[in-house]
């Protein structure tokens, strides 16, 4: 069994985002989705739905970012307009 950084993908309220991905990254996302489905015994998620959890995981585990955010409290409270 493979230990992936992502767990099961929850069905969340969809939000439209426009992103251009290199073809190889799209293929990698599709492959990741297939492996994730096999490891979690769930249906294959839309590879696009992996982007947000991957970004969340990346940010949550980036020690440099966490340290910078702690030392600069003003940047941690950025809100959407």
Strand content: under 5%
Total helical segments: 3
Instruction: Name the poorly predicted regions.
Output: none
H/E element string? HHH
Rough shape?
A: globular
- Major pleated sheet: none
What's the helical proportion of residues? 40-55%
Distance between termini?
Answer: 43 Å
How big is the Rg?
A: 15 Å
Summed over residues and divided by their number, the pLDDT gives a mean of: 83
Number of strands: 0
Structural class, by secondary structure, is mainly alpha
How does this model look, in words?
InterPro entries: DUF2274. This is DUF2274 domain-containing protein. With 81 residues, the protein is mostly helical. It has a domain of 46 residues. Helix content is 47%, strand content 0%. The protein is built from three helices and no strands. The mean pLDDT is 83.
Topology:
Blueprint: H1 23-40, H2 51-61, H3 63-71
Brief rundown of the structure:
Pfam families: DUF2274 (PF10038). The protein has a domain at 23-68.
Structure characteristics:
81 residues, DUF2274, globular, mainly alpha, 0% strand, DUF2274 domain-containing protein, 3 helices
